[in-house]
Write a structure and sequence with these properties.
The protein is of the alpha/beta class and 585 residues long. Helix 2 packs antiparallel against helix 5 (151-160). The longest helix is centred in the middle third of the chain and has 17 residues, at 221-237. Bound molecules: guanosine-5'-diphosphate (GDP), 2-phosphoglycolic acid (PGA) and manganese (II) ion (2 copies). Substrate binds at residues 82, 214-216, 265, 381-383.
Amino acid sequence: MNAVPRPQPPPAQGSRLAALNDWVDQVAALTKPDRIHWCDGSEAEYRDLVAGMLADGTLVELNQDTHPGCYLHRSDPQDVARVEHLTFVCTRERDDAGPNNHWMAPAQAHETIDRLFDGCMRGRTLYVVPYCMGPIDSPLARCGVEITDSPYVVANMRLMTRMGAAALARIEREGAQGKAFVRGLHSTGELDPDRRFIMHFPEELAIKSYGSGYGGNALLGKKCHALRIASWQARQEGWLAEHMLILGLEDPQGETHYIAAAFPSACGKTNLAMLIPPEGYRALGWKVWTVGDDICWMRPGTDGRLWAINPEAGYFGVAPGTSARTNPNALATIQRDTIYTNVAVTDDGQPWWEGLDDRVPALDWQGRPYDPANGPAAHPNSRFTVAAMQCPSWSPRAEDPQGVPISAIVFGGRRSSVMPLVFEARDWTHGVRVGAAMGSETTAAATGAVGVMRRDPMAMKPFCGYHFGDYFAHWLSFDRPGAKLPKIFHVNWFRKGDDGRFLWPGFGENMRVLEWMVARIRGTAAAVDSPIGLLPEAGAIVSPACSREDVERVLQVDAAGLPQEQTEIAQHLQGFRPRLPSPLV
Ligand code: GDP
Ligand code: PGA
Ligand code: MN
Ligand code: MN
């Protein structure tokens, strides 16, 4: 029988999984790449990718004496952050995506974005990137394959995930048992903001992203898979996929309490995850271990506790503000083998950003001679990508396939007024309400205005792959017989005085708040009831870096601002009717 020959790209190496090979063939037929490369995740492959990017200018070498293995990528100036207005959740039923997501019907979404993908890889290499989110042998881990035409994305995926041969082997093994992997298709396209979409198809376990190379839009294992698709799967399967750091707080008795904390993007997760306790605490034996800095997957164990893994293997951290004073662990982590994106450069080729030190950079993030008239030298959302295990505080338990048991969940946002430094929810249901009511001022991590207060439930507004009403109900469902749920707290490191300065010193000093939480968990600290929840007793939290008046102010709820806060929260929650669960009405 004579089949009509159809133009075929050069033969691929392929996998042992027909479903994967067929999908790669289909994508190649649509995107028409010159070459196909199946990534094995090896060191040699990474070196080749870097060499290619240095040759074509995608990467610039930084000072190899001070920063060995470090490179700088300058993105398109119009492609520097997540694009929430171009991000869609494409469920069959519109209501399933909820008022918290932009929605498009799946057929229309595929058609719209496939038109952009048609022929977009001509002259380019199609990379097949198998990855595993979570320790490769963990029952909580999930796999995906990202197809991309961006070597920058491949290199970042190698730092951020377990990428390559081991992931492919797991995908093949699971595929043979009928278990699907998440399919992510990505192209940088023309980097035209008018030809850009980030589409999610939770019912198909599929993602399509076109027109951006920025981390949150293009590293599909991260926000697209590990939060939007995973949150959908988690609801079906009885677990949680959350925008949370995970840290282990070791006390002087040698007991480690694991804490998960959800703050919106650029509101302090990476810093808290890598906290170094003040000297006095260190002398007593307190230590913080970093399990994860952005995403947490957790499920109830047979003991009734929530067990959590960090699905990622690297950090994609905010550069500005990172310094030897604020986050020495991060600074130590990024001295070598790091990809910097959109930072400034000193005259001797070192990476630089606002808040690092008092040197004056030579070039700004766009590669222009630095001129303060052009704004900050580093883009406010400039980032570093680096392997997690390079962090001095990296927890060995980050590789534990069973995860770590969570003792406390912390919600928090960037609130210049009203919200106090810390309070505790009265119980799980109240804690879910506190999370659902969360507000925060917007940051440079997403395009749009910065510093605008908005509601961001559980820091998941941009990341929940389904209706928030269903999501809150799912959270409430964990409170059932036999459950040993963590305590829930709310923090605010960003309360400001009338003069506009932060009242609380933050960073390492946040240890004092963590200590109070541990004391509450152990039952050794009292608390005072208030309209919003349980507050520390007067004098329970003090800091040598904060005046007595400032501490007093920061620990208090702003009574004058509370009525409006409560009105806003009520209005916000009404927006999820009729799916709003009754305990939150
Ligand atoms: P993430 O995006 O949630 O991981 O947030 P980061 O930890 O990267 O922090 C984002 C920005 O907030 C950086 O510029 C930090 O320096 C700053 N930041 C983090 N923690 C604190 C804090 O406790 N107090 C203050 N004032 N700023 C903080
Ligand atoms: P972040 O991660 O939370 O560390 O800022 C990136 C993002 O959320 O866009
Ligand atoms: Mn994040
Ligand atoms: Mn971070």
